[in-house]
Specification:
Distance between the termini: 39 Å
Low-confidence stretches: none
Domain Glycosyltransferase subfamily 4-like N-terminal: 47-176
CATH class: Alpha Beta
Number of strands: 8
Radius of gyration: 19 Å
Pfam families: Glyco_trans_4_4
Strand content: 15-25%
Helix content: 25-40%
GO molecular function: glycosyltransferase activity
CATH architecture: 3-Layer(aba) Sandwich
Strand order of the largest sheet: 3-4-2-1-5-6-7-8
Number of domains: 1
Protein name: Glycosyltransferase subfamily 4-like N-terminal domain-containing protein
Order of helices and strands: EHEEEHHEHEHHEHEHH
CATH superfamily: Glycogen Phosphorylase B
CATH topology: Rossmann fold
């Protein structure tokens, strides 16, 4: 029997012109759908769909989209309407799945799954409550949005007890925000060309030192990673 996995992940609806999943999410989905022992469903939301629920199969993956308020209304309601809509759906349907995988904490996913009895894993994409601290313009919309998202992160991350982390930085903050949690450290590549190696034969490694390139778009994380102690 296949393992039924529900992802809460940023997969844009086909009506979102030019939208695409972030590289590591899309590539991982493409690898998982090839495995017969995994039955993958992706849950996301969009204000562009006509019906309350849009459900379909595409490219070997089952997709479910919930109709939520437009972005401006979502912000003005402090994300509460969207959280309630997704939470209500999960209360009715989450029991059908063996595992919930939350992709990131910045979109209030832990607030939507809090209280569910289905095993839940969150892969950390970043710690938005830390990012908000280093936004230079204290009056910017970015500062306001990240601060609000950070509040939900701090309130609800303790309800999640299992995490995937990719750096020492996010591992340390996750352990602080969710005391006693279990963290699975996964050095995850960020580009599809690196994931292509998953289906290829491992290359023979030459003896001796090998270079390692670190890159990040977050100045806070990149600088601390490069300048601070690592393991």
């Amino acid at each position: 029997m296949a393992l039924k996995v529900l992802w809460l992940a940023p997969f844009p609806h086909p009506l979102e012109t030019g939208g695409h999943p972030v590289p590591w999410v899309g590539t991982l989905a493409n690898l998982l759908k090839k495995r017969p022992e995994v039955e993958l469903t992706v849950l996301n939301w969009s204000h562009r769909i006509a019906d309350p629920v849009d459900e379909f199969d595409a490219d070997g993956i089952h997709f479910i989209y919930l109709k939520t308020p437009p972005v401006r209304e979502d912000i003005l309601t402090l994300y509460q309407r969207r959280i309630r809509l997704v939470r209500r759906y999960l209360r009715q349907h989450a029991h059908r799945y063996d595992l919930l995988h939350l992709h990131g904490s910045e979109l209030q996913l832990p607030a939507m799954t809090a209280g569910l009895r289905v095993p839940t894993l969150l892969s950390v994409q970043g710690i938005v409550s830390e990012y908000a601290k280093v936004v230079p313009d204290s009056l910017s919309i970015l500062k306001a949005l990240w601060t609000m998202a950070g509040l939900y992160e701090r309130w609800y991350l303790p309800t999640v007890h299992h995490f995937l982390c990719r750096t020492d930085w996010d591992k340390a903050h996750t352990a602080r925000l969710s005391p006693g949690c279990t963290i699975y450290h996964n050095w995850e590549a960020l580009r599809p060309e690196f994931f292509a190696a998953a289906d290829a034969r491992p290359p023979l490694l030459c003896p001796g030192p090998r270079p390692c390139l670190w890159a990040a778009t977050s100045p806070s994380r990149a600088l601390r990673k490069c300048c601070g102690p690592t393991t």
